[in-house]
Amino acid sequence: MNSNARQDLLPLWESAWREIDPSAIVSNYRAIRAAIGPGTKIFACLKQDAYGCGAGKVASLLSAAGTDAFGVVSIADAIAVRRAAPGTPILMYPGIGPDAVDLVRDLDLTISVSGEEDLQGWLATGVPLKVFVKVDLGFWRAGVVPASLRGLVKLCASQSNLAVDGLYAHLSEFGDAGSSAPAQVARLTPLLDALKAEGRLPSTVMVSSSESLLQHPEFDMDAVDPGALLFGLARSGAGRRTLSIRPALSAIKARIVALKTCHDSMGRPPGLPGYHPAMRLAVLGIGWGHGVPRDLGSSASVLVRGRRAPVVPPVHLEHLRIDVTDIPEAVLGDEAVLLGSSGADRITLPQLAEAWNTDETGVGCGLRESLRRIDAAPRSKPNQEEGE
């Protein structure tokens, strides 16, 4: 059996799966490219297995679409991306150390350096390296403090086996609890001027990812590294830029693997929300082992034959209960839609995120490898209700 035929049959064999729309990823990339213009590079951020969409598959798509570089956190993602895009630069965000130097060299990766101690560990390997210096402008995470940036860049420049190709930051996500994006960038501007005057300013300066790309076009600089936005997981209508994007995660589905009308011989119903005597109970082949949260909101429901069926707690490792008393036509093997369309009804990504007590990114990145990915048919137009 060829691979395409096997892919087409996967939903018939699986008890649960997610559907990824490859065309959405490419369309979102093109929308970003059109918005920022040709003078700014795009480092496509594919952390967390490309936000659950598959780092290798996405790298292949975006490499063909013309992305300038990739950003990843894990070695596993770096390997998948390098196989899919042999000649495209890959920036490793903070997360690996000098013990991985052989892979860094073999995969031709660019490492991040966040301080002098970090740098000394890499220098001890004696391996020629490509480097991006990371600065912490108020995110309180990885990166050298602004006061030490010039000294770190000077030290890097003094090493014959280092090529300092870039300097970058990620802006704070603390909202009112932290510094504003303009205040953070204001800390960097005089440092960039000083580095330029000293002849040490790297060729690529990057501070803007998904949210700041939407909110602050003035911070595009030499490059941007969008992640959530590429996958339709950022609110594109909320900023100074409005992009036409749509979620790459288009559906989450499971099959009814058990079905019965409950009976007094089972004992009285559990004293939990949703249980009632003689209810028609369906069991889906999906659970927290696939990434469904163990504690769902009271609004959690699925679609069966185009109608809503409430989720009945608790969630199990491999199973999820639903009440199909009001859907008498439901049968064993029916498809249940946790995300997506069935008949005239639809569960959107924001609706699912609310029921799962998270946000859209939390849904996509919280799904586990056990929930198989398949390609979905592309949709014809964006759906603004989904934050596109």
UniProtKB/TrEMBL annotation:
The keyword Isomerase applies. It is an enzyme of class 5 (isomerase). Residues 248-376 form the Alanine racemase C-terminal domain. Its cofactor is pyridoxal 5'-phosphate. Its EC number is 5.1.1.1. Keywords: Isomerase, Pyridoxal phosphate. Pfam families: Ala_racemase_C, Ala_racemase_N. It catalyses: L-alanine = D-alanine. InterPro entries: Ala_racemase, Ala_racemase/Decarboxylase_C, Ala_racemase_C, Ala_racemase_N, PLP-binding_barrel. This is alanine racemase.
